[in-house]
Amino acid sequence: MNTHEYIENNKQKFLDELLDLLRIPSVSADSKFKGDVRKTAEFVKNSLEKAGVDKAEICETAGHPIVYGEKIVDKDLPTVLVYGHYDVQPADPYELWDSPPFEPVIKNEKIYARGACDDKGQMYMHVKAFETMMATGSLTCNVKFMIEGEEEVGSDNLGIFVKENRQKLAADIILISDTSMIANDTPSLTVGLRGLSYLQVEVTGPNRDLHSGVYGGAVANPINVLCEMITSLKDENDHITIPGFYDKVAELSAEERKALNDAPFDLDGYKRDLDINDIKGEKGYTTIERTGIRPTLDVNGIWGGYIGEGAKTVLPSKAYAKISMRLVPDQSSKEITELFSKHFSAIAPKSVKVKVTPHHGGEPAVTPTDSPAYAAASAAFEEAFGKTPIPTRDGGSIPIVSLFKKELGLDTVLMGFGLDSDAIHSPNEHYGLFNYFKGIETITLFYKHFAKAK
Amino acid sequence: MNTHEYIENNKQKFLDELLDLLRIPSVSADSKFKGDVRKTAEFVKNSLEKAGVDKAEICETAGHPIVYGEKIVDKDLPTVLVYGHYDVQPADPYELWDSPPFEPVIKNEKIYARGACDDKGQMYMHVKAFETMMATGSLTCNVKFMIEGEEEVGSDNLGIFVKENRQKLAADIILISDTSMIANDTPSLTVGLRGLSYLQVEVTGPNRDLHSGVYGGAVANPINVLCEMITSLKDENDHITIPGFYDKVAELSAEERKALNDAPFDLDGYKRDLDINDIKGEKGYTTIERTGIRPTLDVNGIWGGYIGEGAKTVLPSKAYAKISMRLVPDQSSKEITELFSKHFSAIAPKSVKVKVTPHHGGEPAVTPTDSPAYAAASAAFEEAFGKTPIPTRDGGSIPIVSLFKKELGLDTVLMGFGLDSDAIHSPNEHYGLFNYFKGIETITLFYKHFAKAK
């Protein structure tokens, strides 16, 4: 039985296993899910063992554990290090989900659940592809799995784990499925990722909540001040005003920008899908460029004062915001975090006190398109989809990619099978059955071509 | 026994009764306290009956009930209509209270509880003053009590009640204790109150929460946009930019402004009490003017995106804010609410949708200082405190005052015994025992002088 037949014969089993995985609420950001995160790690470990690794282990960290497993076929064969994450984003606001986020359902050929695509679904494709190759005796490379539980909160402990296990993690290439492609009939390979700086800010006015009638107009309102400070971070062209912010941004050549903009993009469809009358972004750049090659600043959350039912005429003591910046080559997350902190404190009026707390960050990355690994990935997509994949710049961040390069000297191939419309990080996240099964097949083809290419 | 002796002999009883009243969480803004609000109304009704009114009743409204009671001594005597409210502001944030808001405690001669001052404590003084005059046979006026349960949410139903009961409420003067004085050794009488327009705004960007990496930089973030819109509502001089906003603001003469600023004010003590390094307000006006005679705009609450533990890289679909404006003569709450709604929708960029929902409002008011009632109040303070009270403009709003003038043709005397430092609307609200007992005595003296003056 060949790999294609094995996948066809095991579709229901592959699906049922993923649904079980999706039922465990492994929200890494919220400590109340700590036990579920560990359950998920054990689930992944058991899956790797059943699939046929020589050994699988749960590696403790200062935070959530990392699952490691390997199958060494022959020391002389090329080795693929598969990275993925089993943790998921928080599911709230729960009320906006059509079905409970941790009770997966299949609707119009899609799996609906938190983590269906990001990254349980895409990560699990690699486990099933490995099982397929083992079961059909077609595994042509050594394989190492490193599946972490802290990607959605900054992967801090994975960085330490990598530094401490260089030998164990030795490989020829990193393989990751945690990105998206343009469309099911337009395969693409992500060759660039944005970095991230994520901070929380706290603005304190008076030492207690005040009556807005007695003090309003005479005492600085921390919410108004926070709004003014956030507003001042961009100019009228949506250009970020933090001094030095753009100093290290790598400008692309006219040719590179043209190639980037040659990728199919339907602006009307884009607006229709989001139900917006207009897009908004940095002047002088296209939507593809704004999300691909330009840095951004977004408020991810804001709160302060009375947010309950009805009205309260309060002049609050404090206001808060979570602010993140997406970074591009050659910006440094650490440097931008420092620039932001320095600037945000500097622009605070004397009437308030400001506290800035860095949350986490990650470096931007660009992966080479002239490597044997990229060639193998491209060939795999071509064989599976009948089309050469288009190289794209992805707006998201997988901080670990630049860390792998730095610590292990390894390049990464980003074979993503999601779609931007999968609503990852949003209510009603979903993943297409087509993408799940096609992904498993494409991954097996990557191993075939990569073994040849080396 | 004279009134002074009666009050002295009943201090403990007067205090214990108030503590019982403070134990009932009558938060009118939050429907989950509906039952407690009614319990409080019944408590007030029973207190009036025990104090000796001819009849007391609970008057149903579309919202929380109104308690009415009256004692007609002689049709030819002047009639005082006492207004107060038994509802209180929400107590959150609960974690900032040193003791539970609805478990009153006495510390350094002060009663700590939500509503201790605003307005249960100040309202109950009138019930006890009435009891004192009844018990000592010194009641020289007819008295009518109208105690409502919706002052903190806009008094909408009281307005209807007043319109429908003009006959029943016929009186010579309205007497209210729901304001503050300058200091315990510097009595003052409030002669001006600000009005209020309170609205909630909702800004919608994309139709769902988005991944800030995939869409960030290309799609309008409703939080950033809301911050920009709020910021644009004031210029660099903290002057409000809503077209027409200041058109009806009554400018005071140089003399009036001087008289106002002659009231004692300790800026250093003010800043120390609030732990702020600087005050902030409209350019060209003093703190007393900013809170007394100038309109303001404050964000009372803001929320949007992810506000939970940790980090979530989301570009949210919606952002919200509760915004209120304090108004001065001769601004109209209805008109300002319309100007705000029109302007806020007009400044929204095409990339978002905006919804503005008026919450409630109230008209500003100025009370005459040349009336027999004002003279009686002034004489009462002088007799009780040994000092002539200073007329002041108060920053807060008691919308009902202008409604009384309009519907009943009655002026109001604002005999407030609170202090700005009582932290009303804030955690650890408190009310001085001195103020509570001195207030009861001063009120009995008002009746004495008012009967003479008429």
Descriptive notes:
2 copies of one chain form a homodimer. With 454 residues, chain A is of the alpha+beta class. The first copy, chain A, folds into 2 domains: 3-193 and 364-453, Zn peptidases (Aminopeptidase, 3-Layer(aba) Sandwich); 195-249 and 295-362, Alpha-Beta Plaits (2-Layer Sandwich). Chain A is 33% helix and 22% strand. In chain A, the strands form 5 sheets. A 6-stranded mixed β-sheet of chain A has the order 1-2-6-3-7-17, with helices on both faces. Chain A has a 4-stranded antiparallel β-sheet with strand order 11-13-9-14. In chain A, a hairpin with a 6-residue loop joins β1 and β2 (66-71). At the A-B interface, β10, α6, α9, β11 and β12 of A face β10, α6, α9, β11 and β12 of B.
Observed structural traits:
13 helices; 454 residues; Alpha-Beta Plaits; homodimer; Aminopeptidase; alpha+beta
Enter the CATH topology name of the largest domain in chain A: Aminopeptidase
Flag low-confidence runs of chain A. Answer: none
Structural class of chain A: alpha+beta
How many individual β-strands of chain A?
A: 18
Largest sheet composition of chain A: 6 strands, mixed
Would you identify the CATH architecture of the largest domain in chain A? 3-Layer(aba) Sandwich
Q: Can you give the helix content of chain A as a percent range?
A: 25-40%
Distance between the termini of chain A: 26 Å
Main CATH class of the largest domain in chain A: Alpha Beta
Oligomer: homodimer
Which SSEs are present, and which pair or pack?
The structure is a homodimer of 454-residue chains.
Chain A: H1 3-9, H2 11-22, H3 34-51, E1 55-59, E2 66-71, E3 79-85, E4 105-107, E5 110-112, H4 120-135, E6 142-148, H5 156-164, E7 173-176, E8 188-193, E9 195-204, E10 210-211, H6 222-231, H7 254-261, H8 267-274, H9 287-292, E11 296-305, E12 314-315, E13 318-327, H10 333-346, E14 353-362, E15 365-366, H11 372-385, E16 390-394, H12 400-408, E17 412-414, E18 430-432, H13 433-453
Parallel strand pairs in A: 3-6, 3-7, 7-17, 8-16
Antiparallel strand pairs in A: 1-2, 2-6, 4-5, 5-18, 8-15, 9-13, 9-14, 10-12, 11-13
